[in-house]
Amino acid sequence: MTDRTAPNPLEQPLAHSDEGPWLRTLTDRLVATPQAFLRPEVVTEAVLRDALELVTDAPLEADALSAVRRLGGAALPERLAAQVAAHLVTEPSLRPVLGARAPVDTAAGIEHFTALVGVVPLRQWFGDDPDRHEEVVRALLRCMAIRPRGETHAQSEDRWQSVSTGLRSDALRLAALEQQRAAELAKALADKRAQEAAAQYTHV
Predict the structure, then answer these.
(1) d(CA 117, CA 163)
(2) What does each C-alpha distance from 147 to 67, 125, 189 come to in angstroms?
(3) Are the C-beta atoms of residues 154 and 27 closer than 8 Å to each other?
(4) Most confident of 8-17, 144-153, 194-203
(5) Fewer beta carbons below 10 Å: N end or C end of the chain?
(6) Which residues lie closer than 8 Å to 203 by C-beta, 6 or more apart?
(7) Using CA atoms, how far apart are residues 20 and 88, in angstroms rounded to an integer?
(8) Do the beta carbons of residue 117 and residue 74 sit within 8 Å?
(9) Of 149, 157, 117, whose CA–CA distance to 24 is shortest?
(10) Tens of pLDDT, residues 93-131
(11) Helices (H), the chain
């Protein structure tokens, strides 16, 4: 069973990944998401339950139903993200991979995936930027420990580093922090040298 308390896969390297469908297959499906999946009044729980039962071809057990209920009670942006995920996971070429897993693992992956709306607003998921389409799809696959067809695990990891808005923002913040620390250190050293020079001058 997936540990839902573990760090989000969007924020850390994956230990392994299974090969899934072609990336283009899922980006095309994302862009073509029916409006019915994006309506706030949609009952998220029902959409997710139907999607998971379709993927696994079996009724959901208690742990998967608990995850579905949590998602159904989430804030609206996370609910809409979960509904988009429900549309994506039912892609026929993805279903064989997910169908071999426990439904709770797929539900847990969707829970992790919904965190993406905190970094990439939902309105950007369907815009004209192909990098954002790729980011959304890679994020979902990553939360399922799946890589696009034709990519090695290492290639998939590298590409995620390139397109992840969150990781790039973190890198920029770290760089800015290091720059600030270097400037503070340089100022402290300059102040110390000035004090030492002043002390030598007064004792001449």
Answers:
(1) 15
(2) 24, 19, 49
(3) no
(4) 144-153
(5) C
(6) none
(7) 12
(8) no
(9) 149
(10) 999 999 999 999 999 999 999 999 999 999 999 989 999
(11) 23-31, 44-56, 62-72, 76-89, 95-99, 103-113, 122-125, 130-143, 153-163, 165-202
Residue type, 180: Q
**Position 85: which residue type?**
A
Best CA proximity match to 82, nearest among 48, 52, 50, 125:
48
Strand partners, 161: none
- Note the pLDDT tens digit of each residue in 12-59: 899 999 999 999 999 999 999 999 999 999 999 999 999 999 998 888
DSSP secondary structure, 76-111, as one string: HHHHHHHHHHHHHHT-TTTHHHHHTS-HHHHHHHHH
CB atoms within 10 A of CB 182: 10
pTM above 0.85, yes or no: no
Q: In whole angstroms, how far apart are CA 102 and each of 5, 6, 60, 67, 204? A: 17, 18, 9, 13, 81
Element at 19 (helix H, strand E) = strand 18-19
